[in-house]
Amino acid sequence: MKEAALQRLFYGALGVLALAGLGVGLASAGAQGLSFGLFAVMTLGGAVMCVWERSVVRSAFALMATFTGIAGFFLLLEADFLAMAQILIYVGGILALLLFAVMLTPPDLGERRLGRIAVATVLVGGATLYLGQQVARTAKWFQLGAPLDGRVERDFSSAERIGVGFLALDQYVVAFELAAVVLTVALVAAVYIARRKKSDLEPETRQETA
Amino acid sequence: MGLGAYVAVSAALFALGIVAILARRNVIYILMGIEMILNAANLNFVAFNRFGSMQLDGQMFAIFTIILAAAEAAVALAIVLNVFYLFDSIKPSEADLLRE
Q1: I need a labelling partner for B45 at 20 to 30 A (CA). Which of A40, A83, A183, B8 fits?
Q2: How does A163-183 read in b/e, with b if 16+ C-beta sit within 10 Å?
Q3: Residue A166 in contact with residue A160, Cβ under 8 Å?
Q4: Maximum Cα interatomic distance, chain A, rounded to a whole number of Å
Q5: In three state form, how does the secondary structure of A102-154 look?
Q6: Phi/psi of residue A135, each to 5°?
């Protein structure tokens, strides 16, 4: 009963904050601000739910909102190839892997401690706010060069240019091949590690056989 | 929306990832926190790429981050399964074989 009341309070507060975020976005920059606010609410709301929820499965599904919101940000930032890759790899791949890990391990519903979450939130939030304030005071964000808004003839699709960047000899071809090797080695090693028997792991039995 | 808004969202997501790592005693939450942190870094890369006067270097970095995150998630899942077989638990505080 107390848990249910707590849950209602949390989601009520989260809903109010989400509406406030959408309203602020709409009031500040119109339609673009509204979509920015929507993606921000998805990203941060999903992350907050992930930290809050007692059940790991619910946290994993809350993380889906976070990853999708990040993909939306990529679309807003004109990185269409990255947005699709984000949805394919994070939502389709990494989240499925996480859910596998959830299903193969026992649930532990008594693990969440609200006090610990509160302390960590206050400490990390304070540190982030302080650091952000310092950075905002000293860094010169908007002198990075001319923003790209002025260019009218702008090719929106980035997939072709990314492909050229991967394969052109003077750009990223070495990193591309290295990433391929790393991915192959990591996946083969993951299969090898995951399929070891328990007798290979126990230090006592290893001593006996030695 | 300017660069500052994206950086602010990214900082908040990064902080939430750290909170997930610090506050939850479960290996899977640690993995989720790492994914949040990597996503925050990616958002920064792409935002600086968009608002700075560079080619596509930021998006390239983000792609390599995504590739390495996929490899990391696969290896981490294998390690989590092994830890569970060995200790019958996925609390990071109980994997203390070297302490004995």
Answers
A1: A183
A2: eebbeeeebbeebbeebeeee
A3: no
A4: 74
A5: HHCCCCCCCCCCHHHHHHHHHHHHHHHHHHHHHHHHHCCHHHCCCCHHHCCCC
A6: -65, -45
- Match 């070495």 to its residue by tokens: A174
ipTM above 0.85, yes or no: yes
Contact A194 B81 (CB under 8 A): yes
Chain B, residues 33-62, CB within 8 A of chain A, namely 35-36, 39, 42-43, 46-56, 59-60, 62
Q: What residues of B are in contact with residue A29 (Cβ under 8 Å)?
A: 1
Residue A55: count of CB within 10 angstroms of its CB:
13
Hey, what amino acid is at A186? A
Q: What is the pLDDT of residues A91-134, one digit of tens each?
A: 888 888 888 888 887 777 777 788 888 898 999 999 999 998 88
> How far does B10 lie from chain A, in Å, by closest CA?
9
Distant-in-sequence, close-in-space partners of B75: CB < 8 Å, separation ≥ 6: A186, A189, A190, A193
Question: Residue type for A58, please?
Answer: R
